[in-house]
Every structure is written in structure tokens, then in C-alpha cells.
């Protein structure tokens, strides 16, 4: 009988020791898991910040492509707009355009209805200025330097629109309500005649952000 009691007592002690050991092991495992989770969270936070910076950079470097069509609906130029150091940088690559010097502007409405593109309205002019770089009370925010088209109808031009932005909900944003458009005219802009520089007919138009 004493042996049986001693056996039971020994078994109980062994079970208690095993339970305590298991508890300590579980506590250690939980501590290790908590530490690992904390490290992963910190790493994720770091990655999130890096990802956010990359997203911001991607936004800053985002290119906006604008197709300019003639009155027959043919694409005659592609403009690439990007945020620049002093405004919006515009690269225009043209084909099948009339040779010579042409007025090039940003117009106030994002609508290019053929055949005359008058639906694009006047020049983009949120500051209510006069037209032309040579006017002391100008220029319009949408006034751009003239472009030159080669005899083969091609053009490769880089200009900067210093008074506009691609950021939405900002002053002079090209993404204002109703949109804006790029326009090529049949003649050169004289940079002083009101209201549009005597640049002639509108021969190609493209909606910005369409």
C-alpha cells in the first residue's frame, strides 16, 4: 500500500514539473513570437515609408500624354507633359504638320470639336492677363513659345509652361473643372496682338488628361 501511495505521489510530482516546464517553454515561445512580430512590424513600417516615398516620386515623375488631332481626326502630334522645376515641361513630337512657324497654346476648355476646335475656348488665362510675352501686362498662363515645323512636317520641341501646374485643386491647374487643351495654330503667334497673337486658324487640338 505504501508503495502504491509513493508511486502516485511520484507521478503527481512528475506531472506538475512537466506542466511547469511546458509553461516556461510556452512563455519563451510566446516571447520569441512577440519579438519576431515586433521586428516584422518595424520592417513593414520602414518598407511602408519607402513605398510611400517611391509612390510620391512616381507621382512627381508621372508623364501625361496628349494626342493632338487635325480636323480630319488624324493624330498629327503627341505631347508629353511632366512636372518640371519651374512649371510644366512639354515635349511635342509632330508629324504631318504644315511646315513653318506655328502658335502653340494651352486653351481654357478640354473640348476639341471639329472642324474648327472653337469648343476649346480661348487661351487658358486664370490670372486675367493680356496675351503675349511682349505685352507688359501679359502673358496668359496658357501662352507658349512658337514651334517650328520642318519641311517634312515633323517637329520636336521642348517648352516650359511656367504659370501652370499638373496638381489637381491648385491654382492654375491644367486639371481644372472643364479641363484644358493643347492647340496648334496655322500661323506664328506675334506675342502681342489681342486676344490670341493673330496666330490664325486652329489646326490641331488635344485634350489634356483625356
Automatic annotation (TrEMBL):
Catalysed reactions listed for this entry: 2 superoxide + 2 H(+) = H2O2 + O2
Gene3D superfamilies listed in its UniProt record: Superoxide dismutase, copper/zinc binding domain
Extent of the signal sequence: 1-21
Enzyme Commission number, as recorded: 1.15.1.1
Keywords: Copper, Metal-binding, Oxidoreductase, Signal, Zinc
Molecular function terms, GO-annotated: copper ion binding; superoxide dismutase activity
Superkingdom to which the source organism belongs: Bacteria
Pfam family, one: Sod_Cu
Residue ranges of the region described as Disordered: 24-62
Cofactor: record remark: Binds 1 copper ion per subunit. Binds 1 zinc ion per subunit.
Biased composition (Acidic residues): 50-62
Named cofactor requirement(s): Cu cation; Zn(2+)
Residue ranges annotated for the Superoxide dismutase copper/zinc binding domain, each copy included: 83-208
Protein function: Destroys radicals which are normally produced within the cells and which are toxic to biological systems. May play a role in favoring mycobacterial survival in phagocytes.
Family under the similarity heading: Belongs to the Cu-Zn superoxide dismutase family.
Full protein name: Superoxide dismutase [Cu-Zn]
Organism: Virgibacillus profundi
Organism classification: Bacteria, Bacillati, Bacillota, Bacilli, Bacillales
Amino acid at each position: 500500500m505504501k508503495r502504491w501511495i509513493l508511486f502516485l505521489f511520484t507521478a503527481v510530482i512528475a506531472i506538475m514539473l512537466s506542466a511547469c516546464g511546458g509553461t516556461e517553454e510556452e512563455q519563451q515561445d510566446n516571447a520569441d513570437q512577440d519579438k519576431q512580430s515586433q521586428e516584422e512590424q518595424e520592417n513593414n513600417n520602414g518598407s511602408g515609408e519607402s513605398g510611400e516615398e517611391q509612390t510620391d516620386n512616381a507621382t512627381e515623375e508621372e508623364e501625361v500624354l496628349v494626342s493632338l488631332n487635325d480636323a480630319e481626326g488624324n493624330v498629327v502630334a503627341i505631347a508629353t507633359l511632366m512636372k518640371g522645376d519651374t512649371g510644366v515641361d512639354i515635349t511635342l513630337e509632330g508629324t504631318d504638320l504644315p511646315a513653318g512657324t506655328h502658335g502653340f497654346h494651352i486653351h481654357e476648355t478640354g473640348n476639341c470639336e471639329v472642324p474648327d476646335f472653337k469648343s476649346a475656348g480661348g487661351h487658358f488665362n486664370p490670372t486675367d492677363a493680356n496675351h503675349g510675352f511682349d505685352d507688359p501686362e501679359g502673358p496668359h498662363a496658357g501662352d507658349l513659345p512658337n514651334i517650328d515645323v520642318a519641311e517634312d512636317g515633323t517637329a520636336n520641341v521642348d517648352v516650359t509652361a511656367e504659370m501652370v501646374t499638373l496638381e489637381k485643386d491648385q491654382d492654375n491647374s491644367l486639371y481644372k473643372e472643364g479641363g484644358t487643351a493643347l492647340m496648334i495654330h496655322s500661323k506664328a503667334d506675334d506675342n502681342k496682338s489681342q486676344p490670341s497673337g493673330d496666330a490664325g486658324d486652329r489646326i490641331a487640338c488635344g485634350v489634356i488628361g483625356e
